[in-house]
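User: Could you check the structure of this?
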Amino acid sequence: MEQEMKQFACGDVVPGCDATFTCETEDEILGLVGAHAVADHGITEISDELVTAVQARIVELV
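Assistant: Sure, the predicted structure tokens are below.
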């Protein structure tokens, strides 16, 4: 059985950002998005609110 993929578009949380992340698990996406937030947006502390906003916008690819 093929693993369904999940996807997150950073622009859904940070307007104007065109970064997109596609992984097998939500945890993988959160790890990549956290590194992206630090490297590309200068965010030094990942708040619970930011994690919740990201989680709410992760979609299942069919």
